[in-house]
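Table S2 (continued). Query chain:
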Amino acid sequence: MPIAKNNINAEIQTVFVQPRKPQNPPGPTADNFQQILTDNMHQPPHTGKSTNQIIKLGVIDKNTPTVSNLLHQNKKFKDETWNIIFSAANRGKHFRDIRAGSEVTLNLANNEISWHRPSHKPTIPASAWSSQKLTANGLVIVGKISRETPTVSNLLRRNKIYHDEAWNIILSSINSDKPFNTIRPGTTIAINPQTFELSFIRHPRQGAAAKTISSAAEEHLSTAVNNFFTDNKSISQKLVDEIRPYIGRPYSEIDCYGLVIRGLKGLGVKYSGNGGLRKTLEKMAMAQGKPLNAYQNGEGLIKAAGKTTFAKTFNHIKHPEKLAEQTFIGVEKSLRQGMILSFSTPSQGHTGVIARDNGEWSYLNSGLIDHQLDRGRTAMRVGEESLEKEIDNWFKLAKNNNEPLEINIGMLDKNKLNNFRSHHAEISHRLF
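Corresponding output:
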């Protein structure tokens, strides 16, 4: 059941997994589902201006970290906040890319929100570059993508010069649109010491040996992508095994987020201190001008330590039962034990882990357990509930509160978890 949260992060970029049709009994079709979504997309009226008049809403900072905060503080637009944010003119906008210091404007003619993205230049003294290896073009070599350092963030965080500025460099305006997810093993990463622009240098194949190495690397990468769920199956199953012993413990002792963290710690993941998962979550929040604990939730854990498989925001919900049913049908085929599932509305949030109990998909979480599959009583505690009923609960809650509902599902990624190992031997033994 829903548990109140402190952070409000409602502007969501979503990726939706197309729902499948149930085989038996017959259910709503994909066309019907699209109609349901369309029915729930409320179109706000224009603000009464026919001209292209643009006004300034304010600046994103620690006191107003989101566009919704700016709108809520404006007497003129306070009551239309969510109608403006979810209007047709703003669908697909990357609100989470808005950084601290950005000036946000509103077009009164069509409710379109725009912002000026300031340069997000890291602060590294010039003297720090003097001893670094340079390319012929004057770029500084950061390192090479490999199994030990599979991402650019790994390389930057392991370097004493770039460690504290890793996310500032990656998320800066000059680098934010670069294809970080397509970098192949063996690629050299370089940085311009003046502009902080990152470059990806792919070395040409040299002879049969180089060709063999390159082919092997590409084959390894392809296999890793195609077998993502298979490779990570044991990790996720072990997460379920780590959490289940806590069933029955009171909520006052373990809340929903703390339950998942205990499971991750049981896998050997370092959470607190330098190099821990929490520090990464805090840096992610800082990079976007949000409160330090903005990503200390299920969504943040998926971003930092997993791979998103489903992310969707539903707004102005009119038919909660139908949407809940269609959402469950849409995600059921791709569900795996050990996936992290996060629910979020502007006023409440909840997270837990997906499991199976006697052939039924279940939800391990800490909160008001009232659809229990375990033999415990209805109470504020750690428990195992019907996943389908929990999804239904959240759609009804969002509808009753007239709030948008965000659902995120993700699978743990052993390569990302490897960045937060508390003891190499321990986590290697448990995960690999």
